[in-house]
Amino acid sequence: MSDKYGELDFSVPPSQRHGVAVKGELAANMSRMLPDFPKLISDALEELHIVIRRFFTETTNRSANVVGNHAFNDLDSFIDCLFSGDGRSAARASRSLFEHLVNYCEVMSSPEAAERYMEHKGVTADLLGNLTHGLRYLRGNDHKQERSRLAKLKRESLRPLRAALSRFGASFRRDWSSRNLYQRASAHGYESHYDTYRLLSQVTHGSCGGVLGSHTAIAGHTVHRTGPSLELAVLSYLEGFTFFRAFAGEVGTRQRIETRELIESIDALLNYWPTYRQALTSIDAMIWPESPPPGPVAIMAMYPNGRARWFFWEPALNRMKPAYAPEGSERMEERFRRHIQEGNIEIPPNMEGRPITSSVSGVQVTPKEGSSWFTASGILTPGAKPAAPWLASE
């Protein structure tokens, strides 16, 4: 753990320390409140193993094989996200599981769709061949080999790509299918899930609503949170397992691969959703701060010898870093010296060489590169913290 968290009081929930939390706390609370979740996942993965082995052994439709590769791998990522509460990544994986469900039905229903799906790999190869910006970071043989590899990839993709575009049209570059996702979903009876797909897509597309679970209003102020979105994890849990359950059902129906026990294990997970929901909702309430967290503050420190130094203070952590003096610092420092010399500050008797400090509103400072965090009490004037509205309760 970074030394910047050294002043946090871990005996109280994050809501009482400006919403600052560490991942270990989240994991510990999820483990405590979801004791049956690992066993339910383990049971599902045991059944999934058998289905995966049969799927790749018995599936003769190459396009379906590739779609299955996507689906099984995204399910694995999806489960990891649910364990960690990473709702944003879970939303993306859940969204993808819907696409894999629809695409599997499409390529299994139409030989033409299956062919188009496979031919689209030429578009992928062409895009990879154009991905040359990484060459600037390579030197010597590594640069030469990567440049040759990309050139060969580009060269070899040219003929099949031209053939595919000639056959399927220019729009083939944008999408492998002749129908959009909604049309494909409707054709296979899954149009009722399309709005859920659109909702989950807001995370991927960076829409305003995509910050669900990491953005709220507290006491009339907008608060943004970085880290796991537990609200999105709750939503994605239900939808992702619902989509994959349907995928497993389609595999069982279309390929006669026994998926009944896998579906039953997913049903058990879906029945556990209210417990998962309650746990993460409770944890979420303990993470959001009770009041808007304070922003960073520029601190000017005036030492007994008249020298001034600047610091970056993070009050939510009660930690500081040395900072570069801001533009116009000489004028601010001189005014502060005069203010002290004129006796406008009552200097405590226990200074012991410490500086007189002042917060400077409307000024931003940049921490010095490579500097370490240290306890704010090592700089701030004892018993005379810089006056600021959000310190009124201290």
List the helices and strands and how they pair.
Elements: H1 23-33, H2 37-58, H3 62-84, H4 87-109, H5 111-119, H6 121-129, H7 140-168, H8 181-187, H9 194-205, E1 215-218, E2 221-224, H10 230-255, H11 260-271, H12 273-287, E3 297-302, E4 308-314, E5 319-323, H13 329-341, E6 356-360, E7 374-375
Antiparallel strand pairs: 1-2, 3-4, 3-6, 4-5, 5-7
Helix pairs in contact: 1-12, 2-3, 2-11, 3-4, 3-10, 4-5, 4-9, 4-10, 6-7, 10-11, 10-12
Structure notes:
With 394 residues, the protein is of the alpha+beta class. The longest helix has 29 residues, at 140-168. It has helices at residues 23-33, 37-58, 62-84, 87-109, 111-119, 121-129, 140-168, 181-187, 194-205, 230-255, 260-271, 273-287, 329-341; strands spanning 215-218, 221-224, 297-302, 308-314, 319-323, 356-360, 374-375.
Task: Name a few traits of the molecule.
394 residues; alpha+beta; five-stranded antiparallel beta sheet; two-stranded antiparallel sheet
Compact summary:
The chain is α+β, with helices and mostly antiparallel strands. 54% of the residues lie in helices and 8% in strands.
Shape: elongated
Radius of gyration: 29 Å
Terminus-to-terminus distance: 27 Å
User: In DSSP terms, counting alpha (H) and pi (I) runs of 4 or more, how many helices?
Assistant: 13
Q: What's the count of strands?
A: 7
